[in-house]
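Record type: ASSEMBLY
Status: queued
Input:
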Amino acid sequence: MSAAENKTNGIPKIGVYVCHCGINIAGKVNVPEAVEFAAKLPNVAVAREYKFMCSDPGQEIIQNDIREGLINRVVVASCSPLMHETTFRTAMAAGGGNPFLFQMANIREHVSWVTPDKPAGTQKAKALIAAAVERVARHVPLEKTRVPVNPDVLIVGGGIAGIHAALTIANAGKKVYLVEKEPTIGGHMAKFDKTFPTLDCSACILTPKMSSVRAHPNITLWTYSEVVGVEGFVGNFRIQVKRKPRYVDEDLCVGCLECIESCVYKKGRISDEFNVGLSKRKPIYVPFPQATPLVAVIDPESCAELKTGKCKKPCMDACEPKAINFKQTEEIKEVSAGAIILATGFRTFDAARVKRYGYGKYPNVYTSLEVERLVNAAGPTGGEVIMSNGEKPKKVGIVHCVGSRDAHTNKYCSRVCCMYSLKLAHLIKERTGAEIYNFYIDMRTPGKGYEEFYDRLLQEDVHFIRGRVAEISDWTMTPEEEGKLIIRAEDTLVGAVRRIPVDMVVLSVGLEPRADADEVRRLFNISCSHEGWFLERHPKLAPVSTFTEGVYLAGACQGPKDIPDSVAQAGAAAAEALALIDKGHVELEPNTAFIREEFCSGCKTCLMLCPYSAISFNSEKNTAEVNGALCKGCGTCVAACPSGALQQNLFTDEQIYCEIKGVVNYV
Amino acid sequence: MSYLYYPGCSLKSTGRAYEESMLAVFEHLQLPLEELEDWNCCGATAYMAISELKAFALSARNFALAEKQAGGAGEINMVVPCAACYLGLNKAYRYLKEHADLQKTILKALKAAGLSYSDHLRIRHPLDILANDISPDRIKEAVSRPLEGLKVACYYGCQIVRPYADFDDQHEPVIMDKLLRLLGAEVVDWPLKTRCCGGSLTGTVEDVGLRLSYILLKEAKKRGCDVIATACPLCQFNLECYQSQIGRKYGNGNDIAVAYFTQLMGAAFGIAEHDLGLQRLFVPLHLQGTGDKVTGGQYVSR
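Status: finished
Output:
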């Protein structure tokens, strides 16, 4: 292609390539017929079929046709542009063409995968090819722009995933802002006693990492804080963080805990969040002994001084470094970052929702998280598994899949409950010698050393009953059952309904998205699956990326995960963020909005609508102006512009009308 | 709002006390009720087991009659007190809605009888109406003789909330508990609310049927209940009429009253016991705190 031609790209000479995708497309679309049809469309110079267009030989075909001057525009009819648009654009560029003189027709997801009828599928494929051909003839050559990347990274959530990602990035020499909602980092893992399948102490492996976060020169740790605003785009985010008042100066507090000792509340009266309500705390407290930072926090809901202003404030007298400050107020910090990692985690299923299991009704029905605290040496009972009456249970039933794998609650498997149920069975048996029954639907132990752990439990004489538990009640039938909780369950191996009397029940609750997941999703402009988990860009090929460039996912906010998987994913998210940063710049897609000044009436409608603040107003010219670096190509302004002055590259009115014409006219 | 009343066969025979008390309660609360003219079998049990199509057609005829009687204006609330009828009609209603081919067949059959059905019907249980269509305050106001001291086990049976949990929790229904508390009764925690009464097994595999009823009676007695409140004619029949047989078999006394929840409501409203069919109970009901003992035990057929 000559240089002169390249500027305007001359007369359109379109190459159409129809992909078989094995039988993915060819099974439901008559590909030769579609090619024959495409060859007769206006401006089409070449029409070919190939088994796998995305393969190297497939891309080579396009490149050769460009090099030989046969074509200057390309339509590939294959899969979703999400999957391979970049592949083919890159191939075009490699062949010497402009990558934006390209259009993809999705005849797989939109046609072959969703039609049972081959003639109908072929018809629809033809329509989509005609649309793409009409459209691509109106494309103009575009260039990508480059902007520099800010090398700092923001991580939201200080559980094990957030901690691991923060340390990985900080160790690579980059600056990290770690924002955590709670007064301490550590997340759920800090509440566990042992971790499966190795039974190593959860705190022993977690707390050194927590301390490293606190001590790391590259990490700015903001606990008791929330992200309240996000602006900008990949490489150049501006983030507002709200720091809630602790009423204790973080820089002055030395963690001596004298203030807590001296509080006018002689005993704890408020339900302790860290012990999931199994103990009480004071208005001034630290969540747990290894809390990071080890700085007290005052709960304004219960502190006498903050509520009434009439407390004697013995805490202030007790504090030697004078760290307590009741005048502290909320603070908004603004930071810039090139990449964001979300590691906001999960919440456990509310067992009270399954009424037939009696949680909240019978005192000896516990959730798994409560039992995690009971078996924890630093927990409310010092590691003793005792019931509400202070006695050790002699028989314990562990009910799997509570809130999981159930059409009434959550359909999905929560992935960790089988393994933690086995772990709790082992720990309860170790502490109490109780006889233990596990009620499971399927045992799901697919992890390194997991099946072996299951074997170990079988050796330890824990009973396993396969079948869903129907109900837990105090309905007894014999004198021996009196005072017990009766678990009624189907035993699908025996083929009978069984009644098992126990002293204590552990409900292995599943995992759910956090209650505020939807707000977080909106804030960071990402998507959720219909269950509410944050959606990855591709489950296999881009598991830690999101549809928003520069925002990555780590840990259980993306779906139920155990600790090893959370850490692995956090590492992957960190690597993606580092790869983005180390490149130094990002290329911006040219599908941005632009303004035709002669049509702009200066009504400013677009200014208010732009979610990226990419439009400004030039009062001299009395027209709006689009900043191409900030524009994300969402099209909101284009759709709203009353005079049609705003247009969008790759989505001009002409291109869209011709695409419609293609569908309507040719089939 | 006015209601069309579909009695079903039980409420005209073994469950007459249910009909009498429900009509009395609705009247007392000024809920206008009109019986569906020329109603036929709901199609439950026998028909459903042998020919679903016939069962659906029978239900659909009732729907068509309801529309005709209501004059086609707006939504029609059809009150169905029998749990089996409630489920049978509800099932037919949903199947017709969800399966276009079935609906076509049924409409054709209805047409042959000069009837049609266009789907603006709601199948409703009296529990749903009494708890949701009128305010708790109105029920409280109507109480002239509170059931204070009366310990009640609320028994829902298997059909009212399963599989269609239209107005209450499928596993742990509470609507009757709430209603009876408004009357001043003490509702006992009784985990067998929806456990099977034995259903038609008492007539076919008697051993099993009796055992299932026995479990319910024993647990109610153990928890100190004076009465089991029911919302289904078959449950009431099984639990009450077989008590002496159960007593002989399991050595448990023949002495716990089993009443329709509407009878208890009527009693609390001060309606005369004869108007509530209380004299039809085989096991007399003691209304505590008032010293009343409602005696009876006549056979329904006499």
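Annotation: DSSP finds 13 helices and ten strands in chain B.
Annotation: The interface with chain A takes residues 169-172, 191-192, 215, 219 of chain B (CB under 8 Å).
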